[in-house]
Amino acid sequence: MAARVFPPKKLLKSFGNCYFFSRPFNSSPSSPSSSSISINHSTEKLGSIIEKQPQPTNTDTTSLNLHDVEKLFSSVPTTKLLRASANLHFAAMESMVDFGMWVMKSKLMDIEVFRDMVLGVVKHTFYEHFCGGEDALATGDTVRRLHRGGDGLRVMLDYAVECVSDNQSCDRNLEAFLHTVEIAKSLPPSSVSFVIVKISAICPMNLLERVSDLLRWQHKNPSFNLPWKLDTLPILSSISPTYHTLQRPEPLTLEEEHDLQLGHQRLLKICQKCLEANVPLTIDAEHTPVQPAIDYLTYSSAIMYNRDDNIIMYGTIQAYLKDAKERLLLVTKAVEKMGVPMGFKLVRGAYMSYERILASSLGFESPIHNSIQDTHACYNDCASFMLDKIANGPGALVLATHNVESGEKAVAKAHDLGVKKVNQKLEFAQLYGMSEALSFGLRNAGFQVSKYMPFGSMEIVIPYLLRRAEENRGPLSALTLDRQLIRKELKRRLKAIVF
């Protein structure tokens, strides 16, 4: 087999999504039972990269209004606002977050007593702020509260396991995902908008890397034959990064082909379960070494399950990648030709540091846009393009963003096109525990809004929490506006009590 060019293991351990710990938390995770599984992009992952939030500018009742904090937070108890304010304040302290991330990635976590102490602190702070819970009962209550308790928000359910290395773990995770769909079905109608799955939880990571290598090589050499390849949609564009695969990879072995078939069968079982429960399935994006294989499995399944206006399978486009818009154009053109409706979740992306370090270690330019402004422009262009598409034809769109300006632009575009033409095909989404003001503002403007809610044991959700810590550290994070508006509302409530 040809040598694959990857950065040193130390680099992967430090920065790769699946390599945070010397002793991986979920290298062989156990599947939650009915009593222990709980509910809920970027992903993933509805990711976002560090961005300075513009102040809201619109006050028109048909626009996105974030000025009236009393109306925005009317359904949120004061105790929850106080706790959120404290957590967001700590997230803004770069030195504290940097130290916490260093501890979580250090060998100190191999010491059981120290590990239990650290995880206990994390559980009662960031875990409870960003995650739905460890079991179905607790997380089900959270879903009901968000939907019926006055918030009027829906939930994207994400069993947060990712990056496994063996079929046994994949099979356990499959059962957990199927149970998640059952939970979604049992909750109040329309309270669950999507079930979220990461392909790296149901197909071994090393196989996803191998398949991605072969797909990249075929993209560079169209005559390269892949006998196992099913009908799919365009996966790579003319500017997609291919530096991961510098030499011709060996074909899949019979065992690898069998494992790939098993991975695809697991995904199809989840699709079928979602079809029966009438709950759409969204596949999270991950990092570029495995994204071609993820898109391949996503699109080939979408061709099988998406029919007319019943879109079961959604893919994810990461707008911080330079090739995002070109790939989106290629896929939408292909589905129009095939007559297959397609749903997309549009995110900015959650693996920025990893992608840049990986590309640099191999001597190549980063696949990430050179500036945050370029990422914003790409996101807004893709959103506008897809809004036009769904207003005048089949398809559906999830706009996962924590950026106020992107929300304002999308709301204005929706009104230009006619809200009734897009509203049933459009969902806004933010991560649970983030951008609450934006979520409530979009809800008040009459749009469907979901919170991406990961769940699972502490060990399972640690990689997710580390990504949130990295992207939200410092005064210019996506949480800045929330901190300001929550403090403003707390001051208003205090004055109301005093006077």
TrEMBL record:
GO biological process, one term: L-proline catabolic process to L-glutamate
Record keywords, A-Z: FAD, Flavoprotein, Oxidoreductase, Proline metabolism
Residue ranges occupied by any Proline dehydrogenase domain in the UniProt entry: 145-477
EC category name: oxidoreductase
Cofactor: FAD
Reaction(s) the record says it catalyses: L-proline + a quinone = (S)-1-pyrroline-5-carboxylate + a quinol + H(+)
Keyword Oxidoreductase attached: yes
EC number: 1.5.5.2
4Fe-4S as UniProt keyword: no
A GO molecular-function descriptor: proline dehydrogenase activity
Primary role: Converts proline to delta-1-pyrroline-5-carboxylate.
Family: Belongs to the proline oxidase family.
Protein known as: Proline dehydrogenase
Protein species of origin: Castanea mollissima (Chinese chestnut)
